[in-house]
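Forum: Protein Structure Q&A
Topic: Joint prediction for protein chains with partners

I've read a bunch of threads here and the consensus seems to be that you should model interacting components together rather than docking separate models afterwards. I'd like to see that in practice. Below is the full input, 389 residues plus whatever partners are listed. Could one of the regulars post the assembled result?
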Amino acid sequence: MKLSNIDKYIPCIFFDKTFSIFSMVGDDAISFLDRMSTNNIYKINSSRTVITDNKGSIIDILTYKVIDEKNIIFVSDIGSDKSIEYMKKYIIIDDVDITFQERLNKFIIYINNSDDSLNLEKYRLINKHEYKNLTRYEIFLEDNEIDNFDKYSLKKISIEEKNTLDIEMRHIKINESMIKANPLELGLIDIISFDKGCYVGQEVIARLHNYKKVSRELVPFYSKSELEINSKIIFDSKSIGNVLSIQKKSDGFLGLSLVKKKYASYYPKKVINI
Amino acid sequence: METNIPINTIKISEKACEKVKEFANNESREKFGLKVAVKGGGCSGLQYVLEIVEGPDDSDKVISQNGLEVYIPKKAYVYLAGTYLDYTDGLNGKGFEFKNPNAKSSCGCGDSFSV
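Posted by a regular:
Agreed with the consensus. Here's the joint model:
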């Protein structure tokens, strides 16, 4: 199912809002974040990592950068203190302190994978999401860095266009009220390490992956009627999933849903226009 | 197994104490104690820490059992109060084993727990 004519947007840029940047400082900073989240912080210096609870459900996703062996900077996807407080609860004997650093402007850039004209990796806090032939970057910039992008021919897009591209690229912005989901269901396998050892939630996530027991997957949908985030999707009188994102279009609503795998293949044909 | 551990202390079995002394002797340590703590991590959220150290830190609670000094960081104590630490060497494996009444669940290998 083709959701949008993406060629008319790419390459493009969207200014989101300002986000709080935090630092994690101390002798145990790297070890601590490695034990609390899915990615291998020792090996991968700059990426995203998922904070999960002991049942493997997502609490937050952090974009992080290891500055040195005692200092990591990061930004939280949900942008609230909830996950910061969650992590602080687990600082018991570790030499780690989490403090607010500054606020930076978040920009989202969408380009074709083959486009290497932008040298984005030089920015200090960045994450990357690839889907098919597209790459989505989130970059956090100081005010004086914003003008750096004027020289590139990046189309400035609206929030509606940005949401449409995110649906196209199967990208979910998580928030505090989102239904419980694990990172495998949201297609975040690239930021899960399966060989680094234990982290909170690892046992559940490893089992789901190794025994191929991931039961839901992200599926785009189109509906004539408006649906709310988290609302149930009913098929043959059964609840088969939930709405995770939605964007109004001229002739209906586009969105991403988290649907039981056994129904996912029927879904675009039979359930849309509910 | 010891079942009636007062909730304001932790208890180390005689066998566990002997094993700690054996490890310390193997390392030719003259002055030592056992640090028992928890830290964030492991599959279930909190994992146990056992370490042979020279002496307590300022914030450690010190308990003496079977001729062994045990040091417990005060911040970890709330998670460990009432715990029985044993050493087992049966057919199903050997090692130190925690019986922690504060643990609501633990991971498959038993190295971590949640409260």
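Residues 159-168 of chain A form the longest helix (10 residues).
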